[in-house]
Amino acid sequence: MWGTEWPRFEVIKQDVKSAPPQMVGSVHAVDPEHALVVARHVFVRRPAAHALWVAPAEAFYAVTREGLKDPPPPEGPSGVYWVFARRSQRRSMVYGDLVGRYQAENPLEAIRQALLEVQGYAFYAVPEALLHGTEPKEEVLESWFAPAKEKTYRLQSYYGLVTAKEEKDA
Prior knowledge:
There is one protein chain. With 170 residues, the chain is of the alpha+beta class. It has one domain. 23% of the residues lie in helices and 29% in strands. It has 4 helices and 8 strands. The protein has helices at residues 32-43, 107-115, 138-149, 164-169, and strands at residues 8-14, 22-28, 51-56, 61-64, 79-86, 96-104, 122-127, 132-133. Strands 4-7-5-6-2-1-3-8 form an 8-stranded antiparallel β-sheet. It is globular. It starts with 7 loop residues before the first strand and ends with a helix. It comes from Thermus oshimai JL-2. It holds the Pfam family PaaB.
């Protein structure tokens, strides 16, 4: 049915304190708090994390390098923007690395400022005011991310395939 899907939130994850935050995917949730909980279960069950943020998907202004020649009109408030750059077209779980935070009149202006520092294939800008996330304080880190530390992370290929012969012998 149309109109029954929860809003989509983009997820930004910082694996360790010294690494830049990265856009890693999206989740559907009722509100930002719910989106954080869902994002934790989807993106932080086993891999380590230092911090996690979410923002409504419609708040992101996205443009490719080619699209910058004739960009779509930007919509967004004046303020601080987080700008992410995707540096290759290779398929990956990461959509973009944080280039920086920029004070700008609109998202396109923030991306143009980021272009002075980094090249990329695609760019995303989101108003900092719309980000909702965990605070990188020790007590928050422990309660949000400690369960993941005890679990061994293995890729699916580790477990192998069950063949028809193995099923028959069992």
